[in-house]
Amino acid sequence: MIKFTKMEGLGNDYVYIDCYSKKQEIQNESSLAKFISDRHFGVGADGLILICKSEIADFKMRMFNNDGSEAEMCGNGIRCVGKFVYDKHLTDKTKITVETLAGIKELQLKIKEGKVEKVTVDMGKPILQLEKIPVNAIANPITLNVEDKKFEFMCVSMGNPHAVTFINDMQELDIEKYGPKIEKHEIFPNKTNVEWIQIIDREHIIMRVWERGTGETLACGTGACASVVAGIMQQKLNHQVTVRLLGGELEISWNQEDKHVYMTGPARTVFEGEMEEKQW
Questions:
Q1: Rounded distance, CA 151 to CA 167, Å?
Q2: Is 52 a catalytic residue?
């Protein structure tokens, strides 16, 4: 039997498996991610996150989208990693490091009544060079014609690629129509996450996101960070912003001294369970 924990950050939900304690080993991770993410035949989630040992950090996080593809990072997912390892007594530290494919991330755990309630993640410096995101274009922002609309995107990487566009009215967005076509546009060699942003004022925005390999989700931490960076770069936002997503709110700040982006938000355990092996 494989033991798992269902967790969510602002409705961005993942199934977490402890590979750190070496009580269970996972093979065919991509197939497992597709099976376990299925909301009809599996547990139901946006993806799978494995918590592993690391030689360069306190823990290592491997993240798989619900289509089985392995992703570099997930802001909401990594906050739940912090809660998982503290609440399950894998660490007693309130400041930990986590190895990801996007580099080592530092987490500050906020404790309430012996459990992690919120987590602040040092998301590092945003990447704005198009060739490093990567985007096959010459200048940032870029303009794309998709179906019957023209979009201007500010492209940002927070360890994974994002294309951010600003709109006047979120009610007019047909995300199912445009999301998959932008995600898989040839200009993005590794595909992209897509964020639509409506500005309320210089410190408050509304965001909807189409996540690469998953579709629309209730929240995306790296997307919220990329969106705030894009807004600041275009002089639309201040350096500390509340991002309102379908699943709740994140606090994002871009520190002008160290140039790092910091994300603060909740993490919650939904339930524990176990499943038979070899179903996938």
A1: 9
A2: no
